[in-house]
Write a structure and sequence with these properties.
594 residues, single chain, mainly alpha
Length: 594
């Protein structure tokens, strides 16, 4: 095609250009597009229309032309033309190719955006094809752990009347259950049912799995009953999940009942079944039952998990020799101990103060190329901190970093406690700064150790100056820091220091929460400052700061030695309506059972 003809085509308009390009493609004269100005001046609109026209005769030519434009003309396909190609491939049942193309653009072009989806879907009015493609998109996002994107696509489908495919719903629910977004699982499930998706065994299994994650026995049992009422028969996964849930809740009788039900239903238990049942006994120290069940295993072969569970169980009931015997037995059967197995034994050795034996075990791990993990290192660090050997503890921390392991909250907590016990102020503070800088929020006990250390040295000024010191280091100081300091100072009856920190907190624009006000109110009440205590409780009532069951339990445990004084204080709290009727009912039940 000559340049003059190309010029004529452009003068005729987009429609004529589309027709000419289609003619050239169908005749197979693609190379002529390279020799003229047409190829280099193809707009995304023209390409999209050409693909639509070519798709009427199938997808072979349109797909080949789509790829040729990319490879020969270096053409960057628009989102619209790519979407058209995906539709064409799907329509002609080239599902794998269509899925691959969809996944290619899923992240790049923000396909989960409602505005993008709306504009794309409007150009193709086949609801079945749209449902198919959007379902693939949900699956891709869910499997890629892009949960929010998957939910957005699901919502778009629901709102615009596209029925999600059953597999897409299963994958989405499963991805939510895996990350423990249990509330969202139920929200999505209810919406799924409302758009007409009928649950099958896989959906019910995911829902029961979500119940297992959240520890909701009642809902799991309800789902099991619903399955049976719909003549959907539980499978091995269903029963194993129920057994795991019961064992985690200490409901051994119910777990064994499920095992019996499986066998009566012709579903033999597998090693996962036995492992869950053995774990249930081990976690409660019932090693005789665990071992008996281990010896009764039939139709399955004990694996690394089986032996590790038993070894850990024996370590927890102070039967280290039996644990070591099982370790030898598993090796004789060709099973090599893993890091979890070693960690169980290491923990017991450290608890018994057998540090030399613990180091021998570490050498064995090294010889067998078993890499230590955070649990291994934290166990050793904690053991060294307990005996005051902070040099060795810090060496382990250094080795963690060299092995590309990141210290976690437990690492910092153990080290800070170790240095505080030795009154090594600077080291304890540096670790606190490092902990905060790593993005961890120290718990109440961590700040308590620092406060106790300073108070033992008669240096309450250092406690008062701690928030400002953290700020100077560029660290974010929120209410949790002030809360912990005030609470501990109140526990130590350092009222003036607690008041000073409370004033500094308010000067920063932060308002105290229920824990802060309750701590101050009680220490005032205990020291005979009835008016100050009453003012604090009045402020709580004014701001509707309520006492939760957790706060009640914590304070009752912390001040258990105060006897009747604490009881009188709670009476004042109740009189002001700072404990809801529901919480009060729980408290009365707790008091009655104690």
């Amino acid at each position: 095609m000559t340049t003059a003809m190309a010029s004529l085509v452009f003068q005729c308009g987009e429609t004529r250009l589309t027709q000419i390009v289609c003619g050239v493609v169908v005749k197979g004269h693609w190379e002529s597009l390279l020799k003229s100005d047409i190829g280099s001046n193809l707009t995304s609109t023209t390409v999209n229309q050409v693909l639509l026209n070519l798709s009427q005769g199938g997808c072979r030519v349109s797909w080949a032309f789509f790829q040729w434009l990319e490879s020969s003309l270096n053409h960057n396909h628009s989102l619209q033309s790519t979407w058209t190609m995906i539709h064409t491939l799907t329509k002609h049942k080239h599902f794998k190719t269509a899925q691959n193309l969809l996944e290619k653009i899923a992240v790049r072009d923000y396909l989960s955006s409602p505005s993008v989806l709306t504009s794309l879907v409007m150009t193709h009015d086949d609801p079945d094809l749209n449902s198919q493609i959007l379902s693939w998109l949900v699956i891709f996002y869910a499997n890629s752990r892009m949960t929010q994107d998957a939910i957005q696509v699901f919502e778009h489908m629901r709102v615009h009347g596209f029925k999600p495919h059953l597999h897409a719903c299963t994958v989405l629910l499963n991805s939510l259950a895996k990350v423990r977004l249990t509330d969202m699982v139920w929200k999505v499930y209810k919406k799924m049912v409302r758009v007409g998706v009928v649950s099958n065994i896989h959906i019910f299994n995911v829902l029961i799995h979500a119940c297992c994650k959240s520890g909701d026995v009642v809902k799991a049992e309800s789902l099991l009953n619903e399955m049976e009422s719909r003549f959907i028969f539980p499978d091995l996964f269903t029963f194993n999940t129920m057994i795991s849930l019961y064992c985690k809740k200490g409901m051994h009788y119910e777990a064994l009942g499920i095992q019996d039900r499986m066998e009566r239903g012709g579903i033999p238990p597998d090693i996962v079944t036995y492992n869950s049942l053995i774990y249930g006994f081990c976690r409660e120290g019932r090693m005789r039952e665990a071992l008996r069940l281990f010896k009764e295993i039939k139709g399955a072969t004990p694996n690394l998990v089986t032996y590790t569970t038993l070894i850990d169980g024996y370590c927890r009931v102070n039967e280290l020799e039996e644990a070591l015997r099982l370790c030898e037995e598993m090796e004789m059967k060709g099973l090599c101990p893993g890091v979890v197995t070693y960690n169980a034994i290491l923990r017991k050795l450290c608890e018994e103060g057998r540090i030399r034996d613990a180091n021998k075990l570490l050498n064995e791990m090294s010889d067998r190329k078993v890499e230590p993990d955070n649990v291994t290192c934290n166990t050793l660090i904690n053991a060294y901190c307990k005996i005051g050997d902070m040099v060795s503890a810090m060496k382990v921390k250094k080795k963690m970093l060299e092995a590309a392991l990141k210290p976690d909250q437990f690492t910092f907590k153990a080290l800070i406690h170790g240095f505080c016990k030795l009154h090594e102020v600077n080291s304890a503070k540096e670790l606190l700064f490092e902990m905060l800088d790593a993005g961890f929020s120290p718990c109440y006990s961590t700040y308590s150790w620092l406060v106790d250390m300073y108070c033992d040295q008669g240096n309450t000024e250092a406690v008062i100056g701690l928030p400002n010191e953290l700020s100077r280091k560029g660290l974010y100081v929120d209410i949790s820091v002030y809360r912990a300091l005030i609470r501990r100072l109140c526990k130590l009856d350092k009222i003036e220091s607690a008041e000073t920190i409370f004033t500094l907190m308010q000067a920063k624009g932060m308002k105290g929460d229920s824990v802060v006000y309750t701590s101050l109110a009680y220490v005032y009440f205990k020291s005979g400052k009835a008016i100050a205590s009453s003012d604090m409780l009045d402020e709580m009532a004014k701001r509707r700061l309520m006492i939760t069951l957790k706060i009640y339990r914590c304070f009752s445990a912390s001040y258990a030695g105060d006897g009747s004084i604490l009881g009188l204080f709670w009476d004042h709290v109740i009189e002001r309506g700072l404990i809801s009727k529901n919480i009060l009912k729980h408290i009365q039940e707790l008091d009655a059972s104690s």
